[in-house]
Design goal:
CATH topology of the largest domain: Nucleoside Triphosphate Pyrophosphohydrolase
Mean pLDDT: 85
Helix content: 25-40%
CATH architecture of the largest domain: Alpha-Beta Complex
Number of helices: 15
Number of strands: 15
Low-confidence stretches: 1-5
Length: 426
């Protein structure tokens, strides 16, 4: 029954997206608590107009008093209205990326074509993921953002959401960092968050929030993921949204990749980049599909498959086995947790020739490449490079695509049987 209700919820979401009501309503609902004085002033103005209209014409003092009250309300409301339309803060891009110190098995990985894109990884975690027995625990309790973030969340939403259609989807956050010990038989804590919280916390990394009137620095988003000494805060200590990201490579029977090209104005990335055909966030409906108590890798692979079908217009019959290959924290996205994997398709690239982006995904995906060549031999020999891809795709590779390929290359080095299986077209 839960699965049916989740599907019905998706259908309603699609309809509301098409008519544009959902985004309009969600933004105003989110801003309501930041604007209660404005709404109270509007209510006072309307009451003044009603009182003025009902005043007997012969009562000159009452009439003048009511008229003065209405004019005063207008004078007080006008600056507030202009401030709301213009926004109280200004977001300034800060390209520099601060990186944390590493210890033990921790390493930092940079995108070869853009060294500003950085991931925090643990190779021992990636080694343990394919055989992980860990389950997941669910908590519906919502974690509040830090006060210094929440205090500016309204103006930040005004600055980031108004120029484009952005919807406040309900997402899943992760509250534990992965370790080999936890993956062997523990339970990873997951909880509830939403896209607006992600915009105001993790996706604020690389931005400075300035007061529009004075130019004073209200908040530096690049400092949010870090604690004392510049260390990356563990997910158990971080109060950012930390919504889980998932990306899976789609590999056809004739061993070609299906890739999605991001829209240039996407919120979560610089745009115009090549990404895995299934790349996005873990949604609340994924909890309905794979309930708490299930293996974490089953839950993550199910979310990967849903994203792949939603973004690439594939059907369940097109999807074969999905493997979870790696885990990292994306520093450019405030250290949010990310999983990467591989999904083998049951069809060839030729069978997908008429496949196009789903209508509801066009705000985020501008097109698909259905037959991208990949050299698995080169990938196995050097997982840290992008030499396995055609030059034009490699030059436009996004961080999720690179991390997917890197994890696959390391898996091919580790598993001869997997290399033999994938290197043979079927």
């Amino acid at each position: 029954m839960a699965q049916k209700s989740a599907r019905g919820l998706r259908h309603w979401r699609i309809w509301l997206l098409l008519v544009g009501v959902r985004g309009w309503w969600q933004l105003r609902l989110a801003l309501a608590r930041h604007r209660w004085t404005w709404y109270a002033a509007v209510a006072g103005f309307l009451l003044g107009v009603i009182g003025l209209a009902s005043t007997p014409l012969g009562s000159v003092p009452a009439l003048l008093t009511g008229l003065a009250a209405v004019l005063l309300s207008v004078l007080l409301l006008a600056p507030q209205w202009l401030a709301l339309r213009r926004g109280r803060v200004r977001l300034v891009r800060h390209r520099g990326v601060s990186t944390p110190p590493t210890a033990g098995m921790e390493i930092l990985v940079r995108l070869p074509t853009d060294h500003h894109e950085v991931a925090w990884c643990r190779p021992d975690v990636d080694d343990a993921l394919p055989h992980a027995e860990a389950t997941y625990r669910w908590s519906a309790e919502r974690l509040e953002l830090p006060r210094r973030v929440a205090a500016h969340s309204g103006p930040i939403l005004v600055a980031r959401v108004r120029p484009r259609r952005t919807f406040n989807g309900r997402l899943v956050r992760q509250s534990d960092d992965l370790t080999p010990e936890l993956l062997r038989g523990g339970a990873v804590r997951l909880g509830c968050t939403d896209y607006y919280a992600l915009l105001c916390s993790n996706y604020l990394f690389g931005w400075r929030v300035l007061d529009r009137a004075t130019g004073a620095l209200n908040l530096d988003g690049s400092l949010l993921p870090y604690g004392e000494g510049g260390r990356l805060l563990p997910l158990s200590e971080s109060r950012l949204a930390n919504a889980i990201g998932v990306s899976t490579l789609a590999l056809t029977k004739d061993r070609r990749l299906v890739l999605a090209w991001q829209q240039p104005e996407g919120e979560a990335g610089p745009g115009g980049l090549a990404a895995p055909a299934g790349s996005g966030s873990v949604d609340l409906v994924d909890v309905d599909d794979i309930p708490p108590g299930a293996k974490l890798t089953d839950f993550i692979s199910s979310a990967m498959r849903r994203e792949l079908m939603e973004e690439s217009h594939l059907s369940p019959s097109h999807l074969g086995k999905t493997r979870v290959l790696g885990y990292f924290r994306w520093l450019n996205r405030g250290g949010k947790p990310e999983y990467v994997g591989l999904t083998e398709l049951t069809v060839s690239s030729d069978d997908l020739v008429d496949t196009d982006v789903r209508l509801v995904e066009t705000p985020y995906v501008q097109g698909l490449t259905l037959d991208c060549r990949i050299d698995l031999h080169l990938l196995r020999r050097d997982p840290d490079s992008l030499d396995c891809l055609p030059d034009d795709v490699a030059a436009a590779a996004s961080m999720p695509l690179y991390m997917c390929l890197r994890a696959l290359g390391i898996a091919l080095q580790r598993d001869d049987d997997l290399y033999g299986h994938l290197s043979t077209p079927r």
